[in-house]
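Researcher: Structure prediction, please.
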Amino acid sequence: MSDPAPGGDVAAAELLTLEDVERAAAAALPAGVRDFVAGGSGRERTLAANRAAFDRVFLRPRVLRDVSRCSTAAELLDRPVSMPVAIAPVAYQRLVHPEGELAAARAAKAAGVPFTVSTLSTVPVEEITALGGDVWFQLYWLREPGRALELARRAEDAGCTALMLTVDVPWMGRRLRDVRNEFTLPDHVRAAHLDGGGASAAHRRTAGASAVAVHTGREFSSALSWSQVAELRASTRLPLLLKGVLAPEDAVRAVEFGVDAVVVSNHGGRQLDSALPSVEALPEIAEAVGGDCRVLLDSGVRSGTDVLKALALGASGVLVGRPPVWGLAVAGEDGVRRVLGLLAGELADALGLAGCATVADARRLRTARGGAAAGERRRAVVR
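Model: Predicted structure follows.
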């Protein structure tokens, strides 16, 4: 690893799991930044529940299958990918490394997976699409009329291949770590798509509050509704994803509004505390849409086996958010490559050991949850 962050000089041989990368990042980052990346909302019950829910899912491996040639290759939104994984939108990545989103996007391109640019990216979308990878753009609906649609058009003009509207943030959840730290962005870290290169409320310390929450409270609209989804759908040719769906009824309505994919997500435990773990919501949503749109999973994915579990429960693929940021903090682009390489290797291993030669085989696996059969009513037995 050639480009470690200060305090993050960790040999690749020591980074054998994403938990190893997380620990190395925690040692490398200042406490306030570490809390900003790692923390959840409220008492962080949903943050913890995301992992606990994955740990309750067990797989029924098939045997006597030829897995001598095992492939993680798949498609996301009808485009080929090396594995059914995309990097989730994460704000302010220059907090953890000077190159920020540029380094992460280069790593995603090298790994053959999509990179999602956040509305709160510290690098303009045009600079990221210029790298030549498969780039999606995540959109927050903004208070000023027309600004969100302008950003969507800007992303499309820049060459993004998909548009992801986040629908679970009428305002930022109460993230107590940031409140206690009175977290404030350093001057060099700016929202490239919102602040026009100037300082914002996110850069001014606010007593007893997160300055980032104050800033987004002024920028984000809490009036987002299905009418804006219809407006956005009519304004873009790009595939449209809705991120932050946990209720089957909302997923079905998304199909009615022409959405191409829903992302089952609780925002990594950072919005409503005690919201349902995403992997718990996944099977019912996948069943509800019945193939009429794609279903992706976000929140809590920490291994290739987690990816396999999501596929078996009905997902087309997954998003990973914090793990690439940990890799970025530890070793820049090389660190993100390490994270994606670990996921790819673990997924290939899990596929083969489960008797699956392909990602399509994985979607026919059956699961059990907490000792009781789960998802079997909708899983055909593979003969």
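Model: The domain at 12-375 is CATH 3.20.20.70 (TIM Barrel).
Researcher: Thanks, that helps.
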